[in-house]
Amino acid sequence: MATLVEHPALQAARKNLAVCVLDDDASQVELITARLERAGFPAIGTTSPDEALQNVRFGSCRVVVVDLKIPGEGGLEFLEKALQHDPGVYVILVTGFYEVDSAIEAIKHGAHDYLSKPIDFRRLERTLDDIADLASRRSEIRELEHKLFENHQFQGIVGKSPAMLDMLDLVKKVSRHYSNVLITGPTGCGKELVARALHQLTPVAKERFAVCNCSALVDTLLESQLFGHMRGSFTGATDTRPGIFEFANGGAVFLDEIGETSPGMQAKLLRVIENREIQRVGSPEVRSVNVRLIAATNRDLRAEVLAGRFREDLFYRLSSIEIRVPGLAERRDDIPLLVQHFLKKYNEAYGKPFQGLTRRAQIALLQHDWPGNVRELANVISSAAITANTDFIDVCDLPESLQRSGRRAISYNGGAWRPLPLDEVRRIHIQRVLEMCEGNRVRASQMLGIGRTSLYRFLKRGSKKPATAARSGAG
Ligand SMILES: Nc1ncnc2c1ncn2[C@@H]1O[C@H](COP(=O)(O)OP(=O)(O)OP(=O)(O)O)[C@@H](O)[C@H]1O
Ligand SMILES: [Mg+2]
Which CATH architecture has domain 8-139? Predict the structure, then answer.
């Protein structure tokens, strides 16, 4: 017998490497498949390029041995299509007219090897054994990565960068003991996720965790939302209701965007923190509440205190324990892990089994500045998962801003710096942030650190001067 496989590991590796043989000559197909099967490789033979492509598409084979001169499309076109279907497939081209130049051309196009006819089966087997070895090592690495991935999730928070691990360490340490915590960090970096994790680690995890976004309500409604109200205490108060401090009694209240509260509201919050007491709107009765308070902000509260917009005493009460969630640009090591996390999530949601991202798409993600942090990354993967037509997400599936990513984000002028008037820089910057937030003005104003009214004012002002860019460009 010509092919004797002695080593059991080798035999097992060969059994896992399915090979498709494509040639327009049926007798060649038969000869090669028979030979490969004798050597222990599962082999499928066909004279139809379409059938071979289907095998690639559905993962029925890991390797295709293809004749360079198949009719209709040549072997090189087949190679291109096969790699489009599955960038991980190995294509071995076979030719009756071996030339070094065409061999190099084929390898450049992504062929794994280039053999001349009549086939040297020993060499083909050696090549296939190398592929089998590579494939089994890759699957070991994937398994290890998977295990590592499991280890790098904590209460739904994905991250392994030193900055994240330090932050999570602090979360674990303070969780048992805190009564007030301030969580800071840029928009979309995961402050709410951290707040929920913090609550999950406390001895009162089974009690309620109530959320209130302080920027979403005008003062009167915010007060009633937080402290409750009595029937008839204001127009529209048709019934008596408890607020979220009472609702979450025994558990935790999460006050998001605390930096947006008015001085009056800050005074009321200070009273809750100091005395653990609340008063429903319209009621003289003082009620005791036992809640842990987690506040979050993407503003620099110290600067707000200095500017006289935030009460110093409230700031010190809140920030005795401060957890700073790092922005994504500070922990780029986490990007691949987060991409894997969101791919899995959206794979399940959209029913598309993506294998991953092409190398150039991965590079584009690593080079981006991520002003919208993890939320922006989640949105990018979600929309790419919807638009991608192949098993791999490529650069063309990413938003345009990422396709021409890199350091571009710093320049405001299509690349070349020019001494633009500040008004113009502001207009372009606001436009970019709005694009990034898909036109959502509330989110854009949060990201820009300005109120919504200011954003509307700037937009209005900008729209009155459409020709400014052209003028300043000429000057
Ligand atoms: N480390 C992480 N691992 C997994 N998902 C994350 C992580 N950080 C953030 N996310 C996800 O990103 C999104 C934004 O997170 P979150 O709402 O907690 O941010 P935020 O800091 O509160 O934002 P904002 O300042 O706008 O309120 C959420 O869908 C959240 O689940
Ligand atoms: Mg939030």
Answer: 3-Layer(aba) Sandwich (3.40)
94 by Cβ neighbours in 10 Å (0-12 / 13-18 / 19+) ranks as: buried
Q: Is the CB of 171 under 6 A from ligand 1?
A: no
Strand segments (E) across 166-208:
180-184
For residues 397 and 343, the answer to whether their CB atoms sit within 8 Å is no
Pocket test for ligand 1, best of 157, 184, 192 (most atoms within 8 A of CB): 192
Q: What are phi and psi of 297, to 5 degrees?
A: -155, 150
Q: Considering only 60-69, 363-372, 402-411, which range has the smallest mean pLDDT?
A: 402-411
Residue whose C-alpha is closest to residue 191's, from 382, 336, 323, 341: 323
- CATH of span 174-324: 3.40.50.300
Return the pLDDT at 151: 75
Predicted pLDDT at 256? 95
Which are the contacts of 164, defined by CB distance < 8 A and separation ≥ 6?
A: 157, 326, 331, 334
pTM of the predicted model as reported, rounded to 2 decimal places: 0.64
Assign 39 a pLDDT band (cuts: 50, 70, 90).
very high
Indicate whether residue 345 lines ligand 1 (CB < 6 A). Answer: no
Does the domain formed by 328-406 have CATH 1.10.8.60? yes
Nearest protein Cα to ligand 1, atom 5? 157
